[in-house]
Amino acid sequence: MSTKSSINIDVHLDENKVPEKIIWKSKDGTESEQSRECKAMLLSFFDEETKDTFKIDLWTKEMQTVEMDRLVFQTLRGLADTYNNATRNVKLANAMRQFVEYFGEETEIIPKNQEKA
Prior knowledge:
alpha+beta
């Protein structure tokens, strides 16, 4: 027997079609459902036929720059881990992680590494 999971995303827009609220809901094939509000989302789909990536990037007008910095930092860090797990290409994954560290330092999400000076 196969199971099915669902993720639904509701985007509430203002009169200028700018996102005011983003709510995602997930259901794991049981009656258990989870619902959360968020300020931003980044969603990518890889199309098998065209070999293109289709992206939906949305953020609410309440999203602050420092929050966007943290979202991008955490996303890049996760992408490096995902890439490593999927390809086992440690060399490139580590290069990605070096950029993530640089990004984190430049945005002051993490403290600058004093050993580099």
